[in-house]
Amino acid sequence: MKKKILFSVFISVFILAGMSLSSGAEKSLLLKDGKVITISGDTIEGGDILIKGRKIAKLGKNLPAGPDTEVIDLKGQWVMPGIIDSHSHIAIEGGVNEMGDLMTPQVDIKDVIYPEDINIFYALTGGVTTIHTMHGSANPIGGRGIVLKLRWGKSAEEMIFKGAPLTIKWALGENPKQTNFFLPGQSRYPKTRMGVEASLRYEFEKAKDYLSKWEDYRQKLKAKKGEPPLPPRKDYRTEVVADTLKGKYWVRCHAYQSEEMLSIMHLCKEYGIKLVCFEHGLEGYRITNELVKYSAAVSTFSDFWSYKWEAYNTMPHAVALMAQRGVLVAINSDDAERMRRLFVDAAKAVRFGGLSELEALKTITINPAIIMGIEKQTGTIEPGKDADLAVFNRHPLDPYTVCQMTLIDGEVYFDRAKHLEERKKAEEERKKKEEEAKKPKEKK
Amino acid sequence: MMKKIIILITIVLLTIILLAQDNTDKILIKKATIVTVKGETLQNEDLLIENGKIKAIGKDITSPTGAKIIDASGKFVYPGFIDGYSHFGLTEIGAIPSTTDIRELGKENPELKVAWAINPHSVHFKTSRINGTTTALVAPEGGTFPGLSALIKMEGWTFPEISLKEVATSFINFPITAPPTRGERLGPKRETKIDVTAKLVEKIKNYLDEARHYLELKKSAAKDPSLAPPELNPKYEALAPVLDGTLPVIISVEKAKDIELAIKFAEEEKLNAIFRGCTQGFKVADKIKEAGIPVIIESLYRGPSEPEDGYDAPYRNVVELAKAGIMICFSSGTDPSLGKDLPYHAARAVAFGLDHEEAIKALTINPAKIFGVADRLGSLEIGKDADLFITTGDPLDLRSEVTHLFINGRETDLSNWWDTLYEKWQTRPLKD
Which chain A residue has its CA at the smallest distance from B338's CA? Predict the structure, then answer.
């Protein structure tokens, strides 16, 4: 018995000690001698970044390292803010589309985060640190999305970007119209733009009604007259739409054609809904005046086009043209593989339409951060912001650049040199084992 | 009298037309850095185009009368790029079936020819020329025997005008062995996926044997009138040049184990094989090299074949294949709307260690050799087709811009659908 008590005391002391160690002394890390592309200001040649805990503490030249400071020498390599992908579908378990119904706001990507998706690691190898992973575009109102930091190896809960606004996915055009799938016997309303708009309007009216019923109920409760009132039936689906009307969710609306975008902005104005960003928006360059006036952003591809009719009337110059005309533009991946080379896509905006290098880099850093409502935490290299960084051996827009290191909250999540070393070891070990496995057979 | 006047006028008009044509036939590019690919890169030299061919390369070439002179000082001249696998002219908008003619029904279609199905006026020719592509292999897709590819130039009014080879290669899609599932690794022993692959390979071999048998029967019947010839089979007929090795066959193959099987298969069947894909080629590079089979690299906008290959496997693969001395060439892949990215695929490989010069070869002389047109294309040499472009810098660099592009010595229009949109929508007035 005594032994048991002693043992448990010993264990708890050990745990407590461990806890105080991890929380007490704030870890500090100094990245030395980099070409620091801050995005928010000038690029600092031979710049140092001092990280304390999760945050960037200081920025400058020849910063002194304390005795407990870990130092990484960047040897003149380029550092930029961790790349942000505002439209992604990775780290989701199972399908991204709830196809079982026309409107599915009740479903939430938060419930199906898949932290072991290898694409999270692949994204890190391309300098990506934060993503907005979302429901697909099968429904006019799809499910809710979630902002994640790619803390590879951590749990789903730990990957969630704390404090990021909640989002809901809407979709217009060929996908909700089911123009390009041919499912025999599975045709459903809507099949036209008119139908998509009408089905949205119907949903908003239903939500307004729902809100007023609950308001009624609350008034009756307050009044305390006669019989206690019966509460209206809880409807999780309509409640999310109602919450969207109240501004709880940031609307991310999949749309390609300019007419559709105009029509939905019109509809949103009528219902007082804040539509934050059009997804894809390949024809957004046609309505820059209207987008700026409404202050809707566009999260788009650099040059992916012609895969369907609504993606035909566009050009790789669209990103530059929109940005130059004052629209907030982000270049997104929408694809696990494209995510690894968003910096190549940003370079295309320089080549097509002549966007400046700084503005091009903004489309994969601070612009998506603003669209996701996390610009105070990440998206630039500034003291006080999260230490989310990507290190490249050449300028990130150089055609021969390779991401060397990716940090999130001051922690290294990808280190190419280390990774290659480990891989070499693993390969040698495997070869050894294979040879050993062959030996006894030869003896026979 | 009237007749004589008409004849005279006709002669005068014809002479004028001929003279005018002659003028545009001669183009002198002056003071350029000429990347010949064949030999050394020439600094500050001239290149003369005449009658669609490269007539002269050298210092201070005197301009022939009537030649158009292009000052290319500070610029670079490269041989036109060759796209090793594409669907140019077979599809406009992927999701719209009426614009897409890539894939026929059925598994065995060795007789299908893409040649006359190609639309030489597809928008994707123009949008893909802007980065230097002058020639492409246009391929069919689907099934085990998708059909016959054509080798074409990127500009012309009709198919005969763009055609380099009406029939360039045949195709075989090799079976793909999927990685074993957890159940297969740990569960009781049963038919493995590699066994399934072996069976499928056997099926292809049987089909080729049937074709051989048919051709034998036909030959015998031709010699001996007492024998009835077999009923005409266009599919077997189309395999005749594949079986006698006169027509190369592109074998699409991905996994290392499948590549080994495909090498054995090609040897046994005595095929003139070209591999396409080979995403796990780096694991068996020495074997591919030994077999002397060239490899068409697929679009590098792809992840690893299996996570175990490593995140950078697609790029590393190219580097290792080139290092092993395998003849490689690049391709833009299955989406012609992204054809302009051909040099950017090469750039990704260079970023991960491919020699820049090798990358340029893999876009020019290598595909010319692989498709048997190295006597006409792939390098800047006197007598070769004047398929070349002038660029402001390294053509693999996104920041460079192709300023002039020539196909058969004719300067081609570099404007395209995107420019039409760009010009129009730049002019929309800005409002508050």
Answer: A304
